[in-house]
């Protein structure tokens, strides 16, 4: 895998299926079941540098090739619906417009950290679109879906996944949503 990923900076990417110990359990299960799972790489990082800006600065990976996955909770009455929103790190998700309407919610906001962690089975700051609950839509900005290479979370703070955007666009429940990123 070394040399294949132009966005890796100083990371040492290896085939993700060969290092499932570097991802959260739900992510490992998703990687095993993905037809394109062999195309993904994982790289170990310092968990204190997992936040995007610090990660990019330290490892030399371009900010515009990093994607963030945020969990949004939309509420209408007593019903709460969750969605994962994946946008480039240089943008933000339109939670109160596009995402709220997609979830048919009166109110939408970032899911509380404890809920996002317990429901996803992943660490805060490492949540990724791979391995999320099957009933959650995975909303992708068109820029993410079209990216040839991206750095995303791995479900833990101690590593990052490297993935083509087209693989994310093929995930179960994935939708490319115009206007998601602002």
TrEMBL record:
Domain (YbaK/aminoacyl-tRNA synthetase-associated): residue spans on this chain: 47-171
Protein name as annotated: YbaK/EbsC family protein
